[in-house]
């Protein structure tokens, strides 16, 4: 009824009119939340989730209301700007009166804009992705806070197993029903896809700290829908079985070695599953070797220094593996989604870089261990660096490269060695320049930055050795 009174869809006047109505509706949601907070004094988490739910419901019809991504971006900017101003002025206690640090009010509109950009032409996938962010997240937060008794730590945030269970169940139902009713996907495949997708998205939500799940959950849901829905039932069944096996293995590692926390085990399982799903079984070998080496090195460092060992959570897994994960996505995207030169679309051109990006963190962790050993730290830094790089490379690279085909060229070994050694040397240089206190989050950030820079430096030479014409040198 209202739509018939508005200017035509896609016209400048239509875009402005619809954007104005949405902004007014967003303002009404904030007004209702603030009024409820002032008159009834409910828990702030409830009023926050009311805003979260209200904004999400208003974002659902965007593909049918708005034609241009620029209009959506303008709506997001005009909605978020006053909210950020209110936060700085100490206003809107119904939204910002929580003790935990959160940037969810920023991540949420970014997530919606990016989801609209990539998913507006697939409205069913768009709605499913938004549902996991809006409904599942809200239910998990409210019910988890009310009934959560078994808590776990995600960096500085606390979550509950009960809340995660609510998210898992609601995501399964909210994914399965639209796939069954609104697509022509086989029924059995719909159930399996919904189950695996719910498990994956629950894992992302479980480790998302500071409101970052408002960004990762909808985008991950859409990406996984695109990847999983074309697969036959047999393939989805295999993927689900492998994911459950990896998850169980990481939980057992966390339980019996204490190297990982619960959230760290969830993050490690996501990394290993991404390696299997996007790369293939051989891609699991290198991260599994890196994890085993890290556990052994950590034990040696704990014995040498007397410091407590283990207890690593999401943040550690993130910084140690982020470069390798990016290389997994790059390899998969060029082979399946992104057109490019022949050398980038055939085979696995990023695998050697990936192995080196996992050997590099092991080398850096080895260097930390040697700094804690009284006998070894008396040696020169060059001796420790050479020993650490050799250890990181030897534990990860040979088997990690061999697993791909059983036959490697000499240049693959050289590529992995350059990334490994270069990552360590760049880390040491950055640590000297940064002058940050050691043993803090800055060490992990510098580790990731060193490995990333080494990978970017080696990348053009590696692609040239592979004969990728677009990257060659004259």
Question: Features of this protein?
Answer:
disordered C terminus, mainly alpha, 20 helices, 474 residues, two-stranded antiparallel ribbon, globular
Detailed description of the structure:
It is a single chain. The chain is an all-alpha fold. The chain has a domain of 225 residues. Helix content is 77%, strand content 2%. The protein has a two-stranded antiparallel sheet. Helix 8 packs antiparallel against helix 9, helix 8 packs across helix 11 and helix 17 packs antiparallel against helix 18. The protein is globular and about 75 Å long. The C terminus is likely disordered.
Helix content: over 70%
Average pLDDT works out at 83
- Give the end-to-end Cα distance, rounded to a whole number of Å: 64 Å
Strand and helix order:
HHHHHHHHEEHHHHHHHHHHHH
Query: Total number of β-strand segments?
Result: 2
**Rounded to an integer, what's the Rg over CA atoms?**
24 Å
Report the principal-axis shape. Answer: globular
Q: What is the topology, as strand order, of the major beta sheet?
A: 1-2
DSSP helical segment count: 20
Largest sheet descriptor: 2 strands, antiparallel
Low-confidence stretches: 470-474
**What is the structural class?**
mainly alpha
> What percent strand?
under 5%
